[in-house]
Amino acid sequence: KxxxxxxKLKNLKLYLSGNDKITDEGLQYLSExxxxxxxxxxxxxxxxxxxxxxxxxxxxxxxxLCQKITDDGLRILARxxxxxxxxxxxxxxxxxxxxxxxxxLYHFKN
Length: 110
What we know:
Blueprint: E1 12-15, E2 35-39, H1 48-54, E3 62-64, H2 71-77, E4 85-87, H3 96-101
Parallel strand pairs: 1-2, 2-3, 3-4
């Protein structure tokens, strides 16, 4: 609920890593932010459902995902064409099939 107060800030880098109070529903407020980078590593209450709110942010360039994201989450995420960097380091539920969805995002930096 506290995220709603960030609406007026521009070009945000938001690190929510390890925050168990952030939920899928809480991510809906991110669609109102001018967000460049988002880290939701170790946010145990964020799932594939929350990804639909993240893709509404056309300005998002860098994303670090949490461990509950699966292939279905990557399928949804592949629509986020502004994304330049994606960290899947702790996403143990993603398979080679999920990675195939990311072929649409061919512009990633190495």
